[in-house]
What we know:
38% of the residues lie in helices and 18% in strands. It is α/β, with parallel strands linked by helices. The protein has an eight-stranded mixed β-sheet with strand order 1-2-4-3-5-6-7-8, with helices on both faces. Strand 3, helix 1 (38-45) and strand 4 (50-54) form a beta-alpha-beta unit. Helix 4 (133-139) packs antiparallel against helix 8 (180-187). The longest helix is centred in the first third of the chain and has 14 residues, at 70-83.
Amino acid sequence: MHTVVSKDGTTIAYDRRGNGPALVLVDGALCSRAQGPMPELAEALADRFTVYNYDRRGRGDSGDSTEYAVDREIEDLAAVIEAAGGSAYVYGSSSGAALALRATAAGLPVEKLVAFEPPYVVDGSRKQIPRTWVADLQALEPAAAIKYFFTKGIGLPAAFVTMMKLMPAWKPMKAIAHTLPYDAQVLGTNCFGDPMDAAQWAPIDQPVLVVNGGKSPGWMKTSTRALAAAVPGAQHTEVPGQNHVIKASAIAPVIADFCK
């Protein structure tokens, strides 16, 4: 484990492995550098990149602050990129993709960005996320917050979330459930069914690839296409046979081909 200190003094933990150009992985909700898809993905890419897999603030071995702000998470990513040599390719998944997009728009030295399925909602094709969800999540204890996030935020059936409680991943997710309001704030106003506002992405001049899975729900495919159309010069691709829990073996070649 390595650490770097973010601008506000928060310690951010990361792992580094492989050889080649720097590539930073940015996790989605309820994931850490030890829990979720990034460890396997880092291994799959380590023969082509020096891969930096970090704990977002409030997760794993990283610290946190009393008052959360999206700008602090952007500064965390900036600190990891600085540790990686001052610039890097970036891959973000789910809310991590939303964070990476905001960081790129804020001017971070991102060489290229691959954004996999930021869970935006840009039409009325699914049940809408409550506009009060940040406050709602902040008021709930961990198990209830996870259920709220998956049912009202992602749109999964409640029965599926009940089954998740029997899985080994449930305990690690509960340990970082207090960060769910962070993810909700990172998504901002892009998840309430309104058309995508392209102005927020206007500062981006780096190459961006927006990706979705072929088996992902229709609302998510719609939002990824809307995002690709809104980000200047962005490309879009769909990975056949994959959903929001994309396999490392499926996304690794997409990242490697784009980041070269």
